[in-house]
Design goal:
The protein has 620 residues and is of the alpha/beta class. It folds into three domains: 341 residues, Up-down Bundle (ABC transporter transmembrane region fold), CATH 1.20.1560.10; 189 residues, Rossmann fold; 73 residues, 3-Layer(aba) Sandwich (Rossmann fold), CATH 3.40.50. Helices cover 64% and strands 10% of the residues. The protein contains 21 helices and ten strands. The strands form two sheets. Strands 6-7-8-3-9-10 form a six-stranded mixed sheet. A four-stranded antiparallel sheet has the order 2-1-4-5, with helices on one face. β4 and β5 form a beta hairpin. The longest helix has 54 residues. 32% of the residues are buried.
Length: 620
């Protein structure tokens, strides 16, 4: 199990780049979500091109403005005619650059948000579709961070690539073409060479330092997982007085994160310094050549100003290229992790074209069922029994005998490894899981509630149920009086995982929730284990009433709760050792009879099973 958990964690965090798809592969997975908004994308790109054309026109206009200032002192007419028009045009170009940029972002926002929403919803649905095994092995804190980063990565990729990288490349192309056409081609070659060296240096150094960034993210996820796990187990921490122990473990993660962050920052400083050195050398070379041209009379002062403005416009966005490249790489990594979740295969999936389950009578059969969570540790061995329509069958036995596994298999959280389970003759593997689970209700042994109101948690059995229906279910589960006595009644918040309620109160909420669902097949998995004797008797009567006319599987440890069952199946070590009614099993004076006498005398049937494992035997 630990090995599987480690494998799952490795998959979720995708620490090994060799296990990840290529960056182009990740982008290819993203494109279909944007293709839905292709017309918006095209319009946004046209606004972006218009903004860059206007931006490149600014230095050209600035050159003409500077050259037009070569007028005689006191010539007021020239001041009004030539420079004034150029100044207004200069301001108009600046405004149009901003206007086109804002229009681009406004048009493209719907595509960005829509793509992020679609991916997030798909991941959410897929996680609910994955098997129980995946959710038992996952690390909640790390996985939620991966989903959070993946969603943010959609925004980042679009923002950085379409709003920063692509516009800069367009502007570079326009400037190089203009310089080569207007002046000596050497200007374009100097600019191009500087850009190539700049980009190459940025990519190489950023690739090198990505390992530190990735390590920092892994340690961040690890620290987050540690904190979430500790807070979810708040009561356990308090029981054992381990606040300092948990703080030390959390601090160890934070210290490793601090060291990784410092290493990442030092490499970032190296990157920034190298970039500025390349920019400075290129600017000196360009301005030296332009100055020489002005002195030689081949260029005007306006040309010098224009070239300087071009360089500033180009290198300001390039200053952030290292950050952009790093963020794009990190966004691709984060997005890949989220896509990796989408690619997790469903261990339990509907067969193609599977029909819905049709419950006519509600006969449940376990036919020669074998099952193992892991191949080396089988749980059930050739189990066969039937729950007749409208009858109650109890399964009893010591802890670890495989009783609760029956409920998980009936719900099809796992598929059997041998044999089959049928409902009215239909193999549950051949019908849709949704229709199967609609037909079954369960009151589990360990009830987990949503951090919402009492009404919400009861109504979860049948979303859309009215307040009157919720109250009727609460009364049937003997929890209405308690809820009514609280200041906020059914609007009372139950807290994280229902921590504000006692075990018995949570159990009764779970019973009310299942009664509200009102399915034809019921499972009671130690349904009264958290109740005191008085409440247990009251709830037993209600459960018996609720199961009237329904097919019910009762999983119990206390034998006194199942004496009225139509049949009792005795489990031990994953095998059926006896079957029959309470009276029949007592008369047989076998395993069940010894368990009954032991519990009546206050003994523990778990100890009996451990002390003297019984051989498998056929049941009546």
């Amino acid at each position: 199990m630990r090995a599987l958990a480690r494998d799952t964690t490795a998959t979720l965090h995708a620490a090994d780049p060799a296990q990840r798809r290529s960056d182009w592969g990740t982008l290819a997975r993203l494109l279909p979500y944007l293709w839905h908004y292709r017309w918006r994308v095209a319009l946004a790109l046209s606004f972006m091109l218009a903004a860059k054309v206007a931006n490149v026109g600014v230095p050209v206009l600035l050159k003409n403005l500077v050259d037009s200032l070569a007028i005689r002192p006191g010539d007021a007419a020239a001041l009004l005619v030539v420079p004034a028009g150029l100044i207004v045009a200069y301001g108009a170009l600046r405004l149009s650059t901003t206007l086109f940029t804002e229009l681009r972002e406004l048009i493209f926002a719907k595509a960005t948000e829509g793509a992020a929403r679609s991916i997030s919803l798909q991941v959410f649905r897929h996680l609910h579709a994955l098997s129980l095994r995946f959710h038992l092995e996952r690390q909640t804190g790390g996985m939620t961070r991966d989903i959070e980063r993946g969603t943010r990565a959609v925004h980042s990729l679009i923002s950085y690539s379409l709003y920063s990288i692509l516009p800069t490349l367009i502007e570079v192309g326009l400037v190089l073409g203009f310089l080569a056409w207007k002046f000596d081609p050497a200007f374009a070659w100097i600019t191009l060479a500087a850009l190539v060296v700049y980009v190459a240096f940025t990519v190489v150094v950023t690739e090198w330092r990505t390992q530190f960034r990735r390590r920092m993210n892994e340690l961040d996820a690890s620290a987050h997982t540690r904190a979430i796990d500790s807070l979810l187990n708040y009561e356990t921490v308090k029981y054992f007085n381990n606040e300092d122990f948990e703080a030390r473990r959390y601090d160890e993660n934070l210290e490793r994160l601090r060291r990784a962050a410092l290493k990442s920052q030092s490499t970032l400083s190296l990157l920034n310094t190298g970039q500025q050195l390349i920019i400075a050398v290129a600017l000196v070379a360009m301005l030296w050549r332009a100055t020489a041209g002005v002195v030689a009379g081949t260029m005007t002062l306006g040309d010098l100003v224009m070239i300087n403005a071009f360089m500033i416009q180009l290198y300001i966005p390039l200053n952030f290229l290292g950050v952009l490249y790093r963020e794009i790489k990190q966004s691709l990594t984060d997005l890949d992790k989220m896509f990796a979740l989408l690619e997790r295969e469903r261990e339990v999936a509907d067969a193609p074209g599977a029909p819905d389950l049709v419950v006519t009578r509600g006969v449940v059969r376990f036919e020669d069922v074998s099952f193992a969570y892991e191949p080396a540790r089988p749980i059930l061995h050739h189990v066969s029994f039937e729950i007749p329509a409208g009858k109650t069958v109890a399964v009893v036995g010591p802890s670890g005998a495989g009783k609760s596994t029956l409920a998980r298999l009936l719900f099809r959280f796992y598929d059997v490894t041998g044999g089959r389970i049928t409902i009215d003759g239909q193999d549950i593997r051949t019908v849709t899981q949704a229709s199967l689970r609609r037909a079954i209700g369960i009151v589990p042994q360990d009830t987990v509630l949503f951090n919402d109101t009492v009404e919400y948690n009861i109504a979860y059995g049948r979303p859309g149920a009215s307040r009157d229906e919720v109250i009727a279910a609460a009364k049937a589960a003997h929890i209405h009086d308690f809820v009514a006595s609280t200041p906020r009644g059914y609007d009372t918040m139950v807290g994280e995982r229902g921590l504000k309620l006692s075990g018995g109160e949570k159990q009764r909420v779970a019973i009310a929730r299942t009664l509200l669902k009102n399915p034809p097949i019921l499972i009671f998995d130690e349904a009264t284990s958290a109740l005191d004797s008085a409440n247990e008797r009251a709830i037993q009567a209600e459960l018996k009433s609720a199961a009237q006319g329904k097919t019910a599987l009762v999983i119990a440890h206390r034998l006194s709760t199942v004496v009225d069952a139509h049949a009792i199946v005795v489990f031990e070590h994953g095998r059926i050792v006896e079957q029959g009614s309470h009276a029949e099993l007592l008369a047989r004076d076998g395993v069940y009879a010894r368990m009954w006498r032991l519990q009546q005398s206050g003994g523990d049937i778990d100890r009996m099973a451990d002390a003297a494992p019984l051989p498998a035997a056929g049941g009546a």
